[in-house]
């Protein structure tokens, strides 16, 4: 009934094209049709309502953010535990936007189709913040980029979404206790000193 009411909040109510219940009918077909405005199938494998895809994508006339948040939390609770966490979703969005120079919380929330306050609230529920995730993404990418000698420090600065190289310097001192150049030299020296992988030869007689 919740899904049915949601579709009826469009400016021109969309008719149902089918309803299913996983049990025998608890009332007459007339009552079911009056409630769902759609043909009923009983003893189905699952509970559901059918609408045309074009109707489901129509705009809702009276958007309600609290109702949206409630529905999102409910759907999240019903999805398998192995699904991607919301923190991971935000991290991936940050990685995609970081080098564009427009990677604020509003832009990331927009790519996730939600209000910035909703994003912050959901991250808080997972014990983190947008700022912490973005900082961790920058740290991880800085270590990767600084290990590539063909990338100049100005290029690394831009790739991390900083407007000035001095910001990269401050971050590197906080993350690695070294300047970007010194940390790069440290990474490259580790690569040079790393022993060659052991080779296995197969002799054929």
Explain what this protein looks like in three dimensions.
The protein is mainly α. The chain is built from eleven helices and three strands; from the N terminus they run αβαββααααααααα. It has helices at about 1-5, 30-35, 55, 65-80, 85-95, 105-110, 115-125, 130-145, 155-160, 165-175, 180-195; strands spanning about 20, 40, 50. Strands 2-1-3 form a three-stranded mixed β-sheet. Strand 1, helix 2 (about 30-35) and strand 2 form a beta-alpha-beta unit. Residues about 1-10 and about 200-205 have low confidence and may be disordered.
List the SSEs and their pairings:
Elements (H helix, E strand, L loop, with lengths): L1 H6 L10 E3 L8 H8 L3 E2 L6 E3 L2 H4 L8 H14 L7 H12 L7 H7 L4 H10 L4 H17 L6 H7 L5 H12 L3 H14 L12
Helix pairs in contact: 5-6, 5-8, 6-7
**H-E string:** HEHEEHHHHHHHHH
Provide the spatial order of strands within the biggest beta sheet: 2-1-3
How many strands in all?
3
Q: Could you tell me the strand content as a percent range?
A: under 5%
Percent range of helical residues: 40-55%
Rg of Cα set: 27 Å
Short description:
With 205 residues, the protein is mainly α. It contains 11 helices and 3 strands; from the N terminus they run H-E-H-E-E-H-H-H-H-H-H-H-H-H.
Which key phrases capture this entry?
disordered N terminus; about 200 residues; three-stranded mixed sheet; disordered C terminus
């Amino acid at each position: 009934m919740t899904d049915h009411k949601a579709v009826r909040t469009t400016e021109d109510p969309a008719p149902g094209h089918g309803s299913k219940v996983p049990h025998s009918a608890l009332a007459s077909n007339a009552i079911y049709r009056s409630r769902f405005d759609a043909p009923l199938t009983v003893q189905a494998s699952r509970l559901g309502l059918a609408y045309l895809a074009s109707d489901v994508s129509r705009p809702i006339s009276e958007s309600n953010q609290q109702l949206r948040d409630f529905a999102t939390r409910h759907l999240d609770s019903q999805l398998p535990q192995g699904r991607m966490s919301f923190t991971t979703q935000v991290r991936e969005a940050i990685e995609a936007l970081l080098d564009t120079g427009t990677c604020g919380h509003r832009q990331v929330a927009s790519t996730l189709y939600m209000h910035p306050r909703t994003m912050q609230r959901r991250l808080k529920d997972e014990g983190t913040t947008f700022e912490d995730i973005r900082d961790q993404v920058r740290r991880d990418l800085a270590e990767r980029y600084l290990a590539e000698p063909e990338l100049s420090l100005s290029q690394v600065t831009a790739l991390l979404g900083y407007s000035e190289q001095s910001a990269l310097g401050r971050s590197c001192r906080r993350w690695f206790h070294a300047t970007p150049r010194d940390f790069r030299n440290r990474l490259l020296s580790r690569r040079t000193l790393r022993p060659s992988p052991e080779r296995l030869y197969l002799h054929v007689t």
